[in-house]
Amino acid sequence: MRLYNTLKRHKEAFTPANDNDVNMYVCGITAYDLCHIGHARSSVVFDVLYRYLKHEGYKVNFIRNFTDIDDKIIKRAAEVGKEASEIAEKFIGEFYVDMDRLNIERPTVEPKCTEHIPEMIDLTQRLIDKGHAYATPSGDVYFKVRSFDGYGKLSGRNIDELESGARIAPGEEKQDPLDFALWKAAKPGEPFWESPWGQGRPGWHLECSAMSEKYSPLPLDIHGGGQDLSFPHHENEVAQSEAATGKPFANYWVHNGFVQINSEKMSKSLGNFFTIRDILDKFLPETLRYFLLTMHYRSPLDFSFDALEEAEKGVKRIYSALNQIDVELDKAKWKKSPFPEELTRELDELEKHFAEAMADDLNTAGALGHIFSVIRLAGRVAEDKNLRKSEGGRDLFGRIKADMADWASILGIFEREPAEFLLELRDNRAARAGIDPAKVTELLDARAQARKDKDFDKSDAIRDELAAMQVEVHDTPQGATWDVL
Hints:
Layout (H helix, E strand, L loop, with lengths): L1 E4 L4 E4 L7 E6 L10 H19 L3 E6 L6 H10 L3 H18 L15 H13 L3 E3 L5 E3 L15 H7 L14 E6 L14 E3 L1 H12 L4 E7 L3 H16 L4 E7 L2 E3 L2 E2 L10 H5 L4 H8 L8 E3 L1 H25 L11 H19 L4 H20 L1 H4 L2 H21 L6 H16 L3 H16 L3 H13 L2 E6 L2 E6 L1
Parallel strand pairs: 3-4, 3-9, 9-10, 11-13
Antiparallel strand pairs: 1-2, 5-6, 6-7, 7-8, 11-12, 14-15
Helix pairs in contact: 2-3, 4-6, 6-7, 9-10, 10-12, 10-14, 10-15, 11-12, 12-14, 16-17
EC number: 6.1.1.16
GO molecular function: cysteine-tRNA ligase activity
Main location: cytoplasm
């Protein structure tokens, strides 16, 4: 497996520090609001990485934190007249609702900031003792950026560039504009904890360093998060952890790309801000998860509802093919007849290509392309009445079904029973189109009776009425079924 390492600026072979044990830390949410499409992308990307590592035989210790005390949480609590802890717990609960719908597996451990204050105080004191941090008269503690020679190595920034834009805000007691807060003195009415420097709370960057050290030996094998976190958050984590421990913080840094909305930056002020709930009110969770995997995780992803509709067509196409495979495999009689070896070899190659795509920096877009090639192969066999009835056809279908189950466990999609999913998808599309399923059923029953009475004019008229409702009718030996045009 090869991963793009932000620290090295290139892809490199992935080798854990300790044989098959992988320690992976991914920055979680700040729990003050509902999760948006950007959270969905990061969560899906690292969920697939987690699944893939386990699939490849690694024992993964996956750590994902919750920031449950922060300026944003305190501000939200003040706005609604609640305690900061109430706000954090509410939105941690809402986070789980969204993640469960997106089929995100739970990490090994999910530490909360407020449950690790002693570890953060200890780390801060070690930095002070080593001359990398200082306390101010008011009780703030700052990290001395210039005391750490490697500052900027992760994000590729240098001290001179940073210095030109740095300022000391009124009331701050920094020795240098570049220094960042490890501990913040409590303001009136804010939550606080006792510390050697007085009552206060930890700075945002501190928690991930402290919790990484608690739940994993350092260096971490993988540290991940959104591209927006590479600076200053991850850069500051590197500085404080390596200054305190004297050893590397993480060997591989993995960052997912930004999400844009119709080619623009997502922003509430632009009116293009979408929560996960906004999207799942209209589309099935699996459609959103599939869409998020159609681009390489490091590439920018342009979200639009039109793009989601295209993704939905892809999901439907694959589930329809899986349903057809189930239909074929349910047949009782198979013929011993020649089956072209080149078709088996073609599947061999596609299996190899899927594995290569996933091993090449988690290329889910490429992997999905190979899945469609497998589906096309199944379609060619299903269209040939001799091949699909042969024992060779049965074996190929069975192998494709097994492959898809294996790949689905990595990607977290295509795990549903196909016929059941297709019905749910149809009803979801009908709801968006304003189609009443009960009315469709009523018209189909009337059409069936008209056909039974040989009243074909009435039958055709009902079919035309359904077509005007954007309903497509399929006549089968078991009766008429319908879908949304």
